[in-house]
Amino acid sequence: LVRELDTLKNLPCETKDNHRIKLWVNTGLMADVFRSLDRGAEGVGLYRTEVPFMIKDRFPTEKEQMQTYREQLKAFAPSPVTMRTLDIGGDKELSYFPIKEDNPFLGWRGIRITLDHPEIFLVQVRAMMKASEGLNNLRIMLPMITGTGEVEEAMRLIHRAYYEVCEEGFHVVMPEVGVMIEVPAAVYQTRELAQMVDFISVGSNDLTQYILAVDRNNARVADLYHSYHPAVLQALKKIADDAHMESVQVSICGELAGDPIAAPILLAMGYDILSMNSASLPKVKYVVRNISYSWSQELLARVMIADSPEVIHSTIELALEDAG
Ligand code: PEP
Ligand code: MG
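Above: the input record for the complex with magnesium ion. Below: its predicted structure, written as tokens.
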């Protein structure tokens, strides 16, 4: 099986009836990069920039960040690398930037912090842009977006950073900018948000947690955390439909994207890109290459009227077994 999965590396990720979907990877450290290239990743859908911040004991300087980001961009060039702006708070802590709150997941997190501290945001975005000089494969992604105002403000800062970087003499192209949909409020504003950006990416880990009101890290309620909950699937379908209505590319970069059982329904919903941990990539590709788009659409239609996560999961699992 290992050898079989290995031969998959250079084969296209398309269904039996030639529907293509891109399989990208999530990265944090350089080790992830090498593993990903080894498995034939076509791009990075989520580079978690918190990781290089977490392994330091102070904020990395613009120059340090630039060097770190350049390694990522260079390793994948000319393939795109989606760099998420700092997403700390919630479950991601920096020892040198402590945040004490009763409800961290509903508190100061992600874009909320960086818009309150534009100096952190500007340094990071400038470092990303400088790192992309001559490579032009950078995409910038904003986490925890709840409304259009945040995107407007972030865009203003991104344009300012771009102006500053050009003033300093760097020759860079303006990167594509996208937002994560991971808060229920954003689900209902997908079309408005899509009009403001170049791409949309679903953070299904947080989206599931917020739709179901189940802490993603609390063992006591872990059996209530259902990525296959009908409400979660309705949200995922709505996001894909609404993004496409605005002709904007839509991806998913939460854990669900790397679940081979989810692949047929995400494909049928029209997701353009699935971004996952590199270990999942061969398995998901294997599933995609062994099903057809029309078959997954019929399966999706059945699944969307089922009323429990267990039934939905087993329906897909059985259908996949039947399909061989
Ligand atoms: C998500 O929320 O699904 C996601 C991809 O981001 P993170 O897991 O880093 O919060
Ligand atoms: Mg998230």
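Notes for the reader.
The chain is about 45% helix and 10% strand.
Residues 46, 48, 87, 182, 203-206, 253-254 surround phosphoenolpyruvate (ligand 1) (CB under 6 Å).
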